[in-house]
What does this fold into?
Amino acid sequence: MAIQKVGVLGCGLMGAGIAQVSAQAGFPTVVREVSPNALEKGMGSIAKFLQGGVDKGKLAAADKEKTLANLSGTAELKDLADCDLIIEAVTENLGLKRELFGTLDGLCKPGTVFASNTSSLSITEMSTFTKRPERFIGLHFFNPVPLMKLVEVVKTVRTDAAVVADANAWCMAIGKTAVNCGDSTGFVVNRLLVPYMLDAVRVFEQGLASRDDIDNAMKLGCGYPMGPLLLTDYVGLDTTYYISEIFFDEFKEARFAAPPLLKRMVLAGLHGRKTGRGFYDWSQNPPA
Ligand code: CAA
It folds into this structure.
């Protein structure tokens, strides 16, 4: 296994999940966050998820301890210098990613593979922020990372075949199924999923059916684990809106355009689970 030590940039929802699954699979994993508060929050969410696994009888208490022992947090990029793989999971801000990858390029050993967990920005563009585009790849995880089995492995026209093979082997080692694809906005999952979520908001806005009837229709009629409006809340209305803008900009197709209701809800701060309200009220359990 070419990949032994893993670095993760960002310890938010996605970064914390990625760091957890890496450490849980036995890889020494260093997570970098800028603020001590954010790091503490992210590490706390990992410990809470692992404890949840122990309480549900899904994880041995000793494995929880081993996972935590494989994890370390830092505020310093130089602490990631000897990692074999670094996965970026910071906010979707190209300027920030440029700064991080540019700095790491100068700090890391030549063999380090750089990966981004971006869901909608161009892997090819990010690879140009470094002098190692052949060692740059996309590794796109799904929320909640510890439970969702898929990783999209995204190669650019410059990525080395050996790097793609190493990334696939690492995904398998952390218990995920990898699908391989080229670098096009949204890759496979979001290219298909985002228009579906936007259409659900559109038909709700047009009054075709109630929120619950739309969600039940897709849950019970298609066997999806959750309906599209609950899923939009779960992903975040702000995130969905942001992604739709990038898609629309890339493809100029109406199906990627954000419905006015989505925009208004984002403006009103109804971002879904993260703000407590979206299509559902998340102060209730289950959301009502
Ligand atoms: N540790 C270990 N296992 C745990 C656990 C924990 N802390 N918490 C839950 N589990 C296990 C449960 O025991 C259960 O296992 P079994 O199937 O063996 O019973 C399983 O995980 C599911 O957990 P729950 O029963 O608590 O929850 P659920 O059945 O309601 O499923 C869900 C929750 C996985 C989120 C499911 O609703 C789902 O798949 N939803 C769709 C999520 C989705 O589509 N995500 C993609 C979003 S898009 C994205 O991420 C990309 C993007 O870029 C926008």
